[in-house]
Amino acid sequence: MYKCDFLIVGSGFAGSVLAERIANDLNKLVLIIDKRNHIGGNCYDEYDENGILVHKYGPHIFHTNEKYIVDYLSQFTNWYKYEHQVLAYSGNEYYNIPININT
Q1: pTM
Q2: Residue 43 CB neighbour total at 10 angstroms
Q3: CA angle (35 as vertex; 20, 29 as ends), nearest 5
Q4: Distance between CA 33 and CA 96 in Å, rounded?
Q5: Residue 41: CB atoms within 10 Å
Q6: Which of the 8 DSSP states describes residue 49?
Q7: Which residues are 45's β-sheet partners?
Q8: What is the rounded distance in angstroms from the CA atom of residue 3 to the CA atom of residue 85?
Q9: Is pLDDT above 90 for 8?
Q10: CA-to-CA distance for 41 and 4, rounded, in angstroms?
Q11: Residue 34: is its pLDDT beyond 90?
Q12: What is the domain count for the chain?
Protein backbone atom coordinates (compact mmCIF):
# COMPACT_ATOMS: atom_id res chain seq x y z
CA MET A 1 0.00 0.00 0.00
CA TYR A 2 1.35 3.43 -1.00
CA LYS A 3 1.03 6.39 1.34
CA CYS A 4 0.96 9.78 -0.30
CA ASP A 5 -0.35 13.29 0.17
CA PHE A 6 -1.37 13.67 -3.46
CA LEU A 7 -2.32 11.17 -6.15
CA ILE A 8 -1.88 12.32 -9.75
CA VAL A 9 -3.30 10.29 -12.61
CA GLY A 10 -1.30 10.71 -15.80
CA SER A 11 2.35 11.60 -16.28
CA GLY A 12 2.15 13.80 -19.37
CA PHE A 13 3.33 17.40 -19.22
CA ALA A 14 0.59 18.58 -16.86
CA GLY A 15 0.79 15.65 -14.45
CA SER A 16 4.58 15.59 -14.37
CA VAL A 17 4.95 19.33 -13.76
CA LEU A 18 2.22 19.34 -11.13
CA ALA A 19 3.83 16.43 -9.29
CA GLU A 20 7.27 18.05 -9.35
CA ARG A 21 5.93 21.40 -8.12
CA ILE A 22 3.93 19.82 -5.27
CA ALA A 23 6.84 17.63 -4.19
CA ASN A 24 9.50 20.35 -4.28
CA ASP A 25 7.54 23.49 -3.39
CA LEU A 26 5.16 22.02 -0.82
CA ASN A 27 7.41 19.18 0.35
CA LYS A 28 4.56 16.70 -0.07
CA LEU A 29 4.66 13.05 -1.05
CA VAL A 30 3.21 12.52 -4.53
CA LEU A 31 2.24 9.29 -6.25
CA ILE A 32 1.81 9.36 -10.03
CA ILE A 33 0.01 6.55 -11.82
CA ASP A 34 -0.11 6.15 -15.57
CA LYS A 35 -1.35 3.47 -17.94
CA ARG A 36 2.01 3.55 -19.74
CA ASN A 37 5.32 2.33 -18.37
CA HIS A 38 7.04 5.70 -18.89
CA ILE A 39 6.57 9.35 -18.02
CA GLY A 40 6.08 12.17 -20.51
CA GLY A 41 2.79 11.18 -22.10
CA ASN A 42 2.87 11.54 -25.87
CA CYS A 43 6.11 13.57 -25.74
CA TYR A 44 8.26 10.51 -25.18
CA ASP A 45 11.39 9.41 -27.02
CA GLU A 46 13.17 6.09 -26.90
CA TYR A 47 16.16 4.54 -28.62
CA ASP A 48 15.42 1.80 -31.13
CA GLU A 49 17.48 -1.35 -31.62
CA ASN A 50 19.94 0.62 -33.81
CA GLY A 51 20.52 3.32 -31.21
CA ILE A 52 18.44 5.91 -33.07
CA LEU A 53 16.31 8.24 -30.96
CA VAL A 54 12.70 7.79 -32.09
CA HIS A 55 9.59 9.82 -31.22
CA LYS A 56 7.38 6.92 -30.11
CA TYR A 57 4.10 8.81 -30.58
CA GLY A 58 5.15 11.13 -33.39
CA PRO A 59 7.15 14.36 -33.34
CA HIS A 60 6.19 17.20 -31.00
CA ILE A 61 7.46 20.74 -31.46
CA PHE A 62 7.93 22.81 -28.32
CA HIS A 63 7.99 26.58 -28.57
CA THR A 64 7.75 29.45 -26.11
CA ASN A 65 8.99 32.99 -25.76
CA GLU A 66 9.24 32.64 -21.99
CA LYS A 67 12.80 32.14 -20.73
CA TYR A 68 11.62 30.96 -17.30
CA ILE A 69 9.77 28.05 -18.93
CA VAL A 70 12.85 26.99 -20.91
CA ASP A 71 14.97 27.34 -17.75
CA TYR A 72 12.53 25.21 -15.76
CA LEU A 73 12.32 22.45 -18.36
CA SER A 74 16.10 22.49 -18.88
CA GLN A 75 16.45 20.92 -15.44
CA PHE A 76 14.91 17.74 -16.85
CA THR A 77 15.95 17.48 -20.49
CA ASN A 78 18.56 18.17 -23.13
CA TRP A 79 17.51 20.34 -26.05
CA TYR A 80 18.12 19.55 -29.72
CA LYS A 81 18.09 22.46 -32.17
CA TYR A 82 15.30 22.26 -34.68
CA GLU A 83 13.88 24.88 -37.05
CA HIS A 84 10.44 24.08 -38.37
CA GLN A 85 9.77 25.12 -41.94
CA VAL A 86 6.99 23.92 -44.21
CA LEU A 87 7.23 24.45 -47.96
CA ALA A 88 4.87 23.69 -50.82
CA TYR A 89 6.23 22.79 -54.25
CA SER A 90 4.27 23.99 -57.27
CA GLY A 91 5.30 24.87 -60.80
CA ASN A 92 8.98 24.15 -60.13
CA GLU A 93 9.02 26.60 -57.19
CA TYR A 94 8.86 26.29 -53.41
CA TYR A 95 6.47 28.44 -51.36
CA ASN A 96 6.33 29.10 -47.62
CA ILE A 97 3.36 27.57 -45.83
CA PRO A 98 1.35 29.09 -44.34
CA ILE A 99 1.15 31.80 -46.98
CA ASN A 100 2.80 34.97 -45.69
CA ILE A 101 4.49 38.17 -46.86
CA ASN A 102 7.56 36.16 -47.96
CA THR A 103 5.57 33.82 -50.21
Answers
A1: 0.73
A2: 17
A3: 30
A4: 43
A5: 17
A6: T
A7: 55
A8: 48
A9: yes
A10: 22
A11: yes
A12: 1
> What residues have CB less than 8 Å from 103, skipping those under 6 apart?
95, 96
CATH of the domain at 51: 3.40.50.720
Cα dist. 78→1, 72, 81, 83, 89 in Å? Answer: 35, 12, 10, 16, 34
Q: In this structure, is residue 102 part of a structural domain?
A: no
- Whether 37 maps to a domain, the answer reads yes
Residue 29 · residue 21 · CB < 8 Å = no
pLDDT for the residue 103: 62
Please tell me the predicted confidence (pLDDT) of residue 1: 75
Residue 1 covered by a domain: no
CA atoms of 12 and 64, how far apart (whole Å): 18
| Full residue range of the structural domain in which residue 93 is found | 6-97
